[in-house]
Amino acid sequence: MASVAFLGMGVMGYPMAGHLLRAGHQVTVYNRTASRATAWLAEHPEGRLAHSPREAAATAEVVFSCVGNDDDVRSVVLGDEGAFSGMTNGAILVDHTTASATVARELGVVADEHGFGFVDAPISGGQSGAENGALTVMCGGRPEHFATVEPVIGAYARAVTLLGPVGSGQLTKMVNQICIAGIVQGLAEGLEFGRRAGLDVDQVVDVISKGAAQSWQMDNRARTMVRDEYDFGFAVEWMRKDLRICLETAREIGTRLPVAALVDQFYAVVEARGGRRWDTSSLVQLLRHD
Questions:
Q1: Catalytically annotated residues
Q2: Of 149, 150, 141, 143, which is closest to residue 170 (Cα–Cα)?
Q3: Is 114 found in the same domain as 16?
Q4: In terms of domains, do 17 and 146 share one?
């Protein structure tokens, strides 16, 4: 069992930290909005509360972070009160934030300079995956660091894979989001086509989900899309942040993402209609209410 710190008590980090505690680890939590960390501690009194990332990391063998974007990662890791200021030699920081490969490599260099390990480890599976301990974790880092943290991450993951050096986890998550963008748009178009053609769309989904069209999005979102329900799940604003990273990286490596760019524009319209926090499946709104 390990002494760990978890920085970021959002919809993902909150349940992930709980799984770590239930697995027998000593868990110290930190959140910039203190009320979230206080609420977690009330629910998990065996845990500990820290008032800064530095304090949280001071006794941790593994420090986990799961925050919003590149700047958020830097704010909890770097600086006088950041996690790196409190970590001891040989400790490892695992960043679960979906961020750029650039910030991952930047932190990897700083970690090396200070005798720390660093693993970029973005996650897939959404809030339900975090709550059920069934996340998919895509990792970049040194094999020896990965070998140390893999069994700890297993407390909330069904799959943990090392894809290559630091940055590889973030690049793999970009592939994941690019694929999802196209799948959700295709599902939205298909469902709305079926509805306007006069079909029983629920029955159609039952049939085609047993064939080549099947996907996680179809299994988990088709019926709520039919009912125009979007007040849950992975928010449009988060997907747009991820797609922005994908598009910027595509320009850097000299490739094009025409479908992802188009879907990002569609999400911009959803945001303009007040759907900033709607689930990404809300793309069908643009077809149904055009």
A1: 173
A2: 141
A3: yes
A4: yes
Residue 282: domain span? 171-288
Q: How confident is the model at residue 247 (pLDDT cuts 50, 70, 90)?
A: very high
Name the pTM for this structure: 0.95
Instruction: Identify each DSSP E strand in the chain by its residue range.
Output: 3-7, 26-30, 48-49, 62-65, 92-95, 117-120, 123-124, 135-140, 157-164
How many whole angstroms separate alpha carbon 247 and alpha carbon 250?
A: 5
- Using an 8 Å Cβ cutoff, are 227 and 279 in contact? no
Looking only at Cα atoms, what is the longest distance across the chain? 65
Same domain? 11 vs 38: yes
Q: How far apart are CA 181 and CA 164, in angstroms?
A: 24
Give residue 178's pLDDT band: very low, low, confident or very high (50, 70, 90).
Answer: very high
Structure tokens at 24: 């027998």
Task: Please indicate, yes or no, whether residues 20 and 148 belong to a single structural domain of this protein.
Answer: yes
Are residues 114 and 50 part of one domain? Answer: yes
Rg of the chain over all Cα atoms, to the nearest angstrom: 20
Rounded-to-integer distance, Cα 109 and Cα 118, Å: 9
The C-alpha atoms of residue 43 and residue 16 are separated, in whole angstroms, by 13
Give the alpha-carbon dihedral of 159, 124, 69, 261, to 10 degrees: 130
Question: Rounded distance, CA 93 to CA 194, Å?
Answer: 48
Q: Both 228 and 134 in a single domain? A: no
* CATH at residue 155: 3.40.50.720
Last-in-domain residue among 107, 129, 163: 163
Q: Which CATH number is 269's domain given?
A: 1.10.1040.10
Read off the pLDDT band of 1 (50, 70, 90): confident
Reference 137, options 94, 183, 75, 102; nearest CA is: 94
Same domain, 136 and 226: no
Tally of domains in the chain: 2
